[in-house]
Design goal:
- The structure holds two protein chains of two kinds.
- Chain A has two domains: 260 residues, Aldehyde Dehydrogenase, Chain A, domain 1 (3-Layer(aba) Sandwich); 183 residues, 3-Layer(aba) Sandwich (Aldehyde Dehydrogenase, Chain A, domain 2).
- Chain A is 39% helix and 17% strand.
- Chain A has 16 helices and 20 strands.
- A seven-stranded mixed sheet of chain A has the order 14-15-16-13-12-17-18, sandwiched between helices.
- Chain A starts with a helix and ends with a strand.
- Chain B has a single domain, classed as Aldehyde Dehydrogenase, Chain A, domain 1 (3-Layer(aba) Sandwich).
- Helix content of chain B is 42%, strand content 18%.
- Chain B has a five-stranded parallel sheet with strand order 7-6-5-8-9, with helices on both faces. A three-stranded antiparallel sheet of chain B has the order 3-4-10. Chain B has a two-stranded antiparallel ribbon with strand order 1-2.
- In chain B, strand 8, helix 9 and strand 9 form a beta-alpha-beta unit.
- The chains are: A alpha/beta, B alpha/beta.
- At the A-B interface, helix 10, strand 18 and strand 19 of A face strand 4, helix 9 and strand 10 of B.
Chain lengths: 492, 263
């Protein structure tokens, strides 16, 4: 290590440049005071009579009152989806079905700013990410699957694909609109109708999507949105009128859902948790790798199931990487999600913030060394600074459990074998990252890592044409690509 | 007059033919057949896990040849299998099933995988990979062809199998194990258990080191077994797709790899 690098390591972390606030205007979003359920193409009051406010995590401001569906409400939504499936949607010419999906893609593009602002407002993610990642990808997903709708027999040669029927879909709060598009686009392309339940803390973009459904003139009942908490999700999973269940969320809930559908013959796909290894070899381009580490764990506040939350660094470059990483962390700007300069927004909910705090406390207690760059956090709202733990043993909770926050655990390795061993030493298997300039090593690592997505010399890339999903306890089934159609088809 | 030498029907675990560690047997088809215990099942899973990396790491061409070799060895024992099953057509079907799947080994990736045109400067492809250890409950009937129809698609993709034979008619399966032992299938890639399904299936379905289960040979207890399978998010096949690459695909993972394109 050179003298200069040593000094960098000891010197105070450079604080972020001062940036003038550059807030995106909220004007473009017009919120209702309260929202009902979207069933059969109509807004309906919940029979449950229950509703709760949805809160902006950056300001703790109540944005709107949102209905909580009860069993009867879920039943009505499933009935509406069944009715739409039986009376029209499954008979409509596939080429026409495609055109509805193309319309939705275009509408999302046209209204992308409105959706992006609302997404950041309700969920706390930086506007830069909702604008540049969530929205373009959501629109692209509809555009991609639109093209499949009238080409299904080419996707499944010799199989005579047919739609499954009514799909019950439950999505998480980390990418609300994007997860909606991952669920709804392939389901409709395959000829199904859907009942979708957004996460309780981020319902607003799904509710705004109902207006896109209206503008696209989609037949009533093809898309039904029922807001609520886990109870509504459980009702949807067990409803006998649901033919297919798709869930993205935690592994614990995924297991409960798998138990609930056991013996029913319902089709099931699960996209669950992860604890991905991001592996840096000594020949990696270090500056790029550090950007990849940052993007891997601090993208979307670390609320990412495929986040590179376990950094595995080859021992010979450990100090250099950590020094560079800490310097880079010092330039991350935490704050107002609607500010275009913000890198890390608000933690999605108070509950999630408490979970992150608990695991971080466990990390310190178990003996890991914590580093957080100095940063001023807003007084109101839920925030957590970018955090890295060094001196982490594999057995620590912060190396085993999914934190789902901006918290990175660093481990080291000497040989490729050891890296593979450590990377695979988890019940999860969603994703992994590899950084090296050696091509044969990339391919060897890609083969040996037991995970559904391998990012080599990049991280956290997504595309509608690229299948996504896990090995082991990270779930089964794929979303995206030709493979993403299969869960929504039955074969005669 | 010469007294015939009778065969002891044992288990097939890790490439060896042990009796049940429990010392139990049960009467089936006029023979004392080993009655595997829960411990035998756990041993079989461990043997399968140990055998998995080597089998999965073999080239697809090589795996295809090994499966074809199984057909070759079976062909030479057609008379014996016909005596055991009493159905020559079933034996022919079983042999032909091996041949059919043998030919799939080096075509799966081309039919099931893809190159993905993502909207950015990345090379992106998806390949199928074996899921790991697969538990199979073979159908009761037909005892040989059913066994092969549910075993061959599991191992052709590179998985290791623990398979529970037909409870009432296990003899053909045990004899097939002798074929496997002499046909270049590495020990532990296929582990054959005989015994009471009622006793063995829940342990198989709930085992935390089994990645997937084929419950085709299960009766009324299917719902409970599927519930147990959720403990480690197993892939569950309840009937299978018949003889097809989709049956193979049910036991394969899909891995997508990204790499930037640049100079």
């Amino acid at each position: 290590m050179t003298e200069i690098q040593k000094r960098q390591d000891r010197s105070p972390v450079p604080s972020a440049f001062d940036y003038a606030p550059a807030p995106e205007s909220r004007e473009i979003v017009s919120l209702e005071e309260r929202y009902g359920l979207f069933v059969g193409g109509e807004w309906v009051e919940p029979k449950s009579g229950e509703s709760h406010p949805t809160i902006s995590p950056a300001t703790e401001e109540e944005l709107a009152e949102v209905a909580y569906a009860g069993p009867e409400d879920v039943g009505l939504a499933v009935d509406a989806a069944r009715d739409a499936f039986d009376n029209g949607w499954s008979d409509i010419a596939p080429s026409e079905r495609a055109k509805y999906l193309f319309r939705i893609a275009r509408l999302l593009q046209e209204r992308s700013r409105e959706f992006a602002v609302l997404e950041s407002l309700d969920g706390g993610k930086p506007i830069r990410e909702s604008r540049d990642v969530d929205l373009p990808l959501a629109a692209a997903h509809f555009f991609y699957y639109a093209g499949w709708a009238d080409k299904l027999e080419y996707a499944f040669p010799n199989r005579r694909p047919k739609p499954v029927g009514v799909a019950g879909q439950i999505i998480p709060w980390n990418f609300p609109l994007l997860m909606l598009s991952w669920k709804i686009a392939p389901a409709l392309a395959a000829g199904n109708t859907v009942v979708l339940k957004p996460a309780e803390s981020t319902p607003l973009t799904a509710l705004l999507f109902c207006d896109v459904v209206r503008q696209a003139e989609l037949p009533p009942g093809v898309v039904n949105i029922v807001t609520g908490d886990g109870r509504a999700g459980a009702e949807l999973v067990k409803h006998p009128g649901v033919d297919k269940v798709a869930f993205t969320g935690s592994t614990d809930v995924g297991k409960e859902i798998q138990r609930a559908v056991a013996g029913t013959g319902k089709k099931l796909t699960l996209e669950l948790g992860g604890k991905a290894a991001n592996i840096i070899f000594d020949d990696a381009p270090l500056d790029q790798a550090v950007e990849g580490i940052i993007n891997g764990i601090y993208f979307n506040q670390g609320h990412v199931c495929c986040a590179g939350s376990r950094l595995l660094v080859q021992e010979s470059i450990y100090e250099q990487v950590i020094a560079k990483l800490k310097r880079r962390m010092g330039t991350l700007r935490v704050g107002d999600p609607l500010d275009k300069n913000t890198d890390i927004g608000a933690i999605n909910s108070r509950e999630q913030l408490e979970k992150i705090r608990e695991l971080v406390a466990a990390g310190e207690e178990e003996g890991a060394e914590i580093f957080q760059p100095p940063c001023r956090l807003p007084e109101k709202g839920w925030w957590f600074p970018p955090t890295v733990f060094t001196n982490v043993a594999q057995s620590y909770r912060i190396a085993q459990e999914e934190i789902f926050g901006p918290v990175l655990s660093v481990l080291t390795f000497r040989t490729p074998d050891e890296a593979v061993e450590k990377a695979n030493n988890t019940p999860y298997g969603l994703s992994a990252g590899v950084w090296t300039e050696k091509g044969s090593r990339i391919l060897s690592m890609a083969q040996r890592l037991r995970a559904g997505v391998i990012w080599a010399n990049t991280y956290n890339r997504f595309d509608p044409a690229s299948p996504f999903g896990g090995y082991k306890e990270s779930g089964f089934g794929r979303e995206g690509g030709r493979h993403g159609l299969e869960p929504y088809m039955r074969f005669e | 007059m010469r007294l015939p030498v009778k065969k002891t029907y044992k288990l097939y675990v890790g490439g060896a033919f042990p009796r049940s560690e429990s010392g139990r047997s049960y009467d089936a088809e006029g023979a004392n057949v080993a009655r595997a215990s829960r411990k035998d099942l756990r041993d079989a899973v461990r043997a399968a896990r140990d055998a998995f990396p080597k089998w999965a790491g073999m080239t697809a061409y090589n795996r295809g040849q090994v499966l074809y070799r199984v057909a070759e060895i079976m062909e030479g024992r057609r008379t014996q299998f016909t005596e055991l099953t009493g159905d020559e057509a079933e034996v022919d079907a079983a042999i032909d099933t091996w041949v059919w799947y043998a030919g799939w080994a080096d075509k799966l990736a081309q039919v099931l995988g893809s190159s993905n045109p993502v909207a950015g400067p990345y090379f992106n492809f998806t390949v199928p990979e074996p899921t790991g250890v697969v538990g199979v409950v073979a159908p009761e009937e037909p005892p040989l062809a059913g066994f092969v129809a549910h075993l061959a698609p599991v191992i052709v993709g590179g998985n290791a199998a623990v398979i529970i034979a037909s409870e009432k008619r296990p003899l053909a399966a045990v004899t097939l194990a002798e074929v496997l032992a002499t046909s270049d299938v590495p020990g532990g890639v296929v582990n054959v258990l005989t015994g009471r399904k009622e006793e063995l299936c829940p342990v198989l379905a709930g085992h935390m080191d089994v990645n997937a289960v084929d419950l085709s040979g299960v009766g009324d207890e299917r719902a409970e077994l599927e519930r147990l399978a959720a403990d480690n998010v197993k892939r569950v096949v309840s009937n299978g797709d018949g003889q097809s690459p989709w049956h193979v695909a049910a036991f394969l993972e899909l891995k997508t790899v990204w790499h930037p394109v640049g100079v």
